[in-house]
Amino acid sequence: MVHVTCTSHGLHRTAEQIRIQFPKVDKLVANVKRVFKKAPYCVQKFHTDAPHIPLHPEPILTRWGSWISAAIYYSENFETIRQIFECFDENNALSIKNAQKYFKSNKIEGNLAYSIYVTNWLPEESYADQSYVRVRRNRK
User: Fold this and answer.
1) 65's torsion region: left (phi>0), alpha (psi -120 to 50) or beta?
2) What is the longest distance spanned by two Cα atoms in the chain?
3) Residue 38 neighbours by CB distance under 10 Å
4) How does DSSP assign 63-83, residue by residue?
5) Predicted TM-score of the model (pTM)
6) What are the distances in angstroms from CA 81 to CA 2, 27, 68, 123?
7) Where on the tree of life does the source sit, at the highest rank (predicted)?
């Protein structure tokens, strides 16, 4: 019996390998997700300080391509989100402290941009079910 991997599963596995190659970007995405999921005050501050930016797409590892959508979002809104996180008290939560640490990392913005660059060949349909991608398309 011959096993044939479907195209979308192959694309997902490729996206997962890209995620694994950029552990600091992955940790940043995970910590920011954790902050916004657990702290309503932080969500409110985000909406107040950046009303023109939708809240981040939630990366779910079992949803194909969701990490790519999140990485695109953070790459395009890096400076705004970094400034918002600078206002948070790092003593309130470990995830805030970790996110601030990764935002201060001198290579994080470059790694984020490069992780997006290496996914340019992936068809947008492989991760277009994410709401942020639809919003991004409408803004162009």
Assistant:
1) left
2) 58
3) 12
4) STTHHHHHHHHHHHTHHHHHH
5) 0.74
6) 47, 15, 17, 27
7) Eukaryota
Residue 109: name the closest of 74, 63, 60 by CA.
74
The amino acid at 22? F
Rounded CA separation 105/43 (Å): 23
Angle (nearest 5°) at CA 139 between 43 and 105 = 50
Please state the domain extents for the chain. Answer: 7-137
pLDDT 10s per residue in the chain (140 long)? 666 667 777 777 777 888 888 888 889 989 999 998 888 899 999 999 999 988 877 777 777 677 888 888 888 899 999 999 999 998 989 999 999 999 998 888 888 888 777 666 665 554 544 444 444 444 44
Structure tokens at 124: 């947008």
CA distance 115 to 139: 22
Cα–Cα distance for residue pair 103/24, rounded to 1 Å: 10
Structural tokens at position 40 = 């309503």
- CA–CA gap between residue 120 and residue 115 (Å, rounded): 9
